[in-house]
């Protein structure tokens, strides 16, 4: 029996073959293990509208975000300049400084590109 490849999207070890493709049972991502181009493109970070984000971009918060230990939330419509993209195991893939809050980590699903 051949070795089961890890899913390039969620890194899950549970996958099954379907013709030439492999299908992940955890995130249902389909990929061809012989196709290397897909693994290069999987590192893109997208905003809530599907636009690709880059370090140095300006973003806008699309939802009130509560902050642990802070008396108030980050309000909808807050503009954040000069973001930095990072890889994180907890899903917070944007590091930035927000006026009135300081350094923060935010998930890209709660922002849109300005």
Describe the protein.
It contains one helix and nine strands. The protein is mainly beta and 114 residues long. The strands form three sheets. The protein has a three-stranded antiparallel β-sheet with strand order 1-2-3, with no helix packed on it. A hairpin with a 2-residue loop joins strand 1 and strand 2 (21-24).
Ordered list of secondary-structure elements with their pairings:
Layout: E1 15-18, E2 21-24, E3 30-31, H1 37-41, E4 59-61, E5 79-80, E6 84-85, E7 94-98, E8 102-106, E9 111-113
Main attributes of the structure:
114 residues, mainly beta, N-terminal domain of TfIIb, SH3 type barrels, 2 domains, three-stranded antiparallel beta sheet, 1 helix, 9 strands, 4% helix, 26% strand
Strands, count? 9
Name the CATH superfamily classification of the largest domain: SH3 Domains
Q: For the record, what CATH class of the largest domain applies?
A: Mainly Beta
Distance between the termini: 50 Å
In short:
By secondary structure, the protein is mainly beta.
